[in-house]
Amino acid sequence: EHGVERLSADFNCTVRDPAYVNDILDRLKREEPRIHDMMLYVEQPFPYDLEANQIDVHSVSARKPLFMDESAHDWRLVRLGRQLGWTGVALKTCKTQTGALLAACWARAHDMPLMVQDLSNPMLAQIPHVLLAAHVSTIAGVETNSMQFYPDASAPEAAIHPGLYRRHEGCVDLSTIRGSGFGYRLHAINRDLPPPEIEV
Q1: Are 81 and 73 in contact (CB under 8 A)?
Q2: By 3-state DSSP, what share of the chain in percent is helix, strand and coil, each rounded to 5?
Q3: What is the pLDDT of residues 55-105, one digit of tens each?
Q4: CB-based contacts of 77: which residues, under 8 Å, 6+ apart?
Q5: Rounded to whole angstroms, how far apart are CA atoms 97 and 126?
């Protein structure tokens, strides 16, 4: 229906007992097998502070891939998550580019699938975000939604990188990214920025 092929379930850190998620997944499998089969993964059902909430989640990840999102602040937490039963990692450049790269490297070295998500990255933030997704193998492309929620915020950048700020058949186009500085092409973007806080 509506051409949907894949789904995910994001509990947004609201669950403390794996049995709750297991029950939902088991009921879906029993009562709505088509929906169950479309579900790629379950995302972050449990509290984001993984160190304070070391919940064994192997029973959930035995049913569906279980992705860390809010908990995946750095590679050390990804390591802890894997020990607890998490099977995948959502990377976000807004948690720092370096942190996302290190988490990606650790996860890849331990056969954990990746996805790249955003928090509605507008303007220049969109560029390193999509570049990360282009260079780490993800399970389903990249989540990018700033053009959906506030399209006008990125108008100066979209004039230079139109394919990055407008989806076409579910895809963004990275072909205009080139040159130094993440390929931003700052000299061509007509955006007034405040003066830097620190001069080096």
Answers
A1: no
A2: 45, 15, 45
A3: 999 999 999 999 999 999 899 999 999 999 999 999 999 889 999 999 999
A4: 50, 51, 68, 71
A5: 12
